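Project channel, design review

CF: Before we commit to the Rufibacter tibetensis constructs, I'd like one complete example in the thread so the newer folks can see what an input/output pair looks like. Taking NfeD-like C-terminal domain-containing protein.
RD: sounds good, go ahead.
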Amino acid sequence: MDFELWWLWLIAGILLLVAEMITGTFYLLWLGIAVFVAAVLAYLFPETYWLPPAAASASALLLILFTKPLTVRLRQAKGYHDPSHQLTNKHGEVLEPISPTRLGTVRVGTEIWSASSPEELSPGQRIIVISQSSTVLKVVPIK
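CF: and here is what came back for NfeD-like C-terminal domain-containing protein:
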């Protein structure tokens, strides 16, 4: 069986789209589409190795630049709930110690997250989420 490069591009595109569905950030969607463009070009022009990465880079950059206003407008639309804010103001519990220089883990509801805090927090301490990035919660203790 011959290995063909376009399969790698296709698999990378699928993984990026799955990651986009999990995170809902829109950035991975554009990268996934760009990688699909690279997969098509790798399939059509298998001998031109420089073309797929160049096309993926250019299309990702163009998609991000030209659709940024669209995503900003979508995020401001009535009824849109940004997944990056869904845990803000929720209470939870520290599972692994957190310090200002080291991430720890917390449980919020049934989910376990990496967390940072400006204070030392020990396991079992109750916390409140003050902000959320895609993978890390910023928490403070409940006093």
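RD: helpful, thanks. Residues 13 and 32 are 5 Å apart (CA to CA).
CF: Residues 5-77 form one domain.
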